Structure to design on (395 residues):
């Protein structure tokens, strides 16, 4: 699928490849317009003096990556001719590959995690050659701000985070409290005042038609088959996971209501056992793809889904950014902080006296915030969400 059209008068956009940045990944000489090696490297266009070159240091979670997209949209709105690249860990990079604002995604496994000073020096040396004008540092960690400082990027924009004075030289206000919605928290970085703009767009990911068709073929899903995606996982912990028995009951209700629908379970390899249990309890021929898809393939399947049910997870935010009819189940977390920002999303949260506790496991031992949210409630919300959009998603 071709990339989104660029703004009038803006240079034709580069192909949005995901690049793995390692030692020696770039040639010793990078193309500069007018020189003999002008076209030897795809980043040659970066050295046009009139183009503002922006780098973004990505967050470490899929959901946070999706919620950062409105910031990129605001940056693009402010500077339609500028170029935006993203440095992201491999497990998050495909999300940015589905954003129309991003020129190139540079994979760097050491952007988060351990200090790895040698690796960060190598990364910063190669980024320095690309001559970025500014860098938006989205994570709050000290380590995440180290690379753009070492790369000598003139403007390094971010929140205060872990006392990053000096590393961040354009602080957009102090670190906001936990009640600030994440989309607004990131969007603050686009403003010189440190205040979130009044009109913040919802996150949007673009469709990748070729990948969608190839993914259906790979997993034996017919082009005309309707899809219901269940995402039972939540990396944070069991206090955010709706019980497997509830997912199984929901799958049985859906199979009875829509006999023609194909029910697919998506998630990481860590969640395969959850999906296996759901399939066994439901007694339905569910397609367990947990751990079998790449993130790009998971995004492609969600993009084609007629309905999605998930916990508060990265897959929830992906479904919202793709505008799919969905039900989002919240337990220990707070939908006021990380909601699925989509008119096609229905959020279910019991908001018990003990919630939100933001704990990985229930400190009271009962997890009533999820156990008491019945499959029937979720199923009724799913039917309502799916009736809003009756046409098949575009191919």
């Amino acid at each position: 699928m071709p990339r989104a059209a660029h703004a009038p008068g803006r240079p034709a956009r580069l192909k949005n490849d995901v690049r793995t940045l390692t030692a020696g990944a770039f040639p010793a000489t990078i193309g500069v317009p007018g020189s003999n090696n002008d076209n030897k490297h795809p980043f040659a266009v970066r050295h046009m003096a009139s183009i503002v070159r922006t780098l973004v240091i990505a967050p470490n979670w899929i959901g946070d990556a999706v919620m950062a997209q409105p910031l990129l949209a605001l940056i693009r709105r402010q500077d339609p001719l500028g170029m935006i690249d993203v440095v992201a860990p491999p497990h998050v990079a495909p999300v940015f590959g589905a954003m129309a604002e991003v020129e190139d995604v540079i994979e760097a496994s050491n952007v988060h995690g351990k200090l790895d000073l040698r690796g960060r020096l190598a990364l910063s040396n190669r980024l320095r050659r690309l001559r970025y004008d500014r860098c938006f540092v989205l994570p709050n960690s000290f380590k995440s701000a180290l690379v753009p400082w070492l790369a000598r990027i003139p403007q390094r924009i971010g929140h205060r985070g872990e006392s990053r004075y000096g590393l961040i030289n354009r602080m957009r206000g102090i670190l906001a409290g936990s009640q600030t919605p994440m989309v607004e928290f990131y969007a603050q970085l686009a403003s010189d005042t440190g205040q979130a703009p009044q009109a913040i767009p919802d996150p949007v990911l673009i469709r990748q038609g070729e990948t969608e068709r190839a993914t259906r073929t790979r997993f034996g899903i017919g082009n005309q088959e309707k899809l219901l995606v269940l995402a039972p996982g939540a990396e944070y912990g069991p206090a955010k996971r709706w019980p497997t028995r509830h997912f199984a009951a929901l799958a049985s209700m859906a199979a009875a209501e829509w006999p023609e629908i194909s029910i697919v379970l998506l998630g990481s390899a860590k969640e395969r056992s959850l999906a296996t249990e759901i399939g066994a309890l439901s007694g339905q021929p569910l397609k367990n793809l947990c751990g079998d898809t790449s993130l790009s393939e998971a995004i492609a399947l969600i993009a084609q889904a007629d309905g999605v049910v998930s916990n508060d997870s990265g897959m929830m935010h992906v479904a919202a950014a793709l505008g799919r009819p969905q039900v989002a189940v919240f337990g220990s977390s707070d939908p006021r902080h990380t909601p699925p920002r989509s008119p096609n999303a229905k959020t279910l949260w019991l908001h018990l006296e003990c919630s939100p506790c933001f704990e990985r496991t229930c400190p009271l031992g009962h997890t009533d915030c999820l156990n008491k949210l019945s499959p029937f409630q979720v199923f009724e919300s799913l039917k309502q969400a799916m009736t809003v959009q009756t046409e098949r998603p575009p191919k």
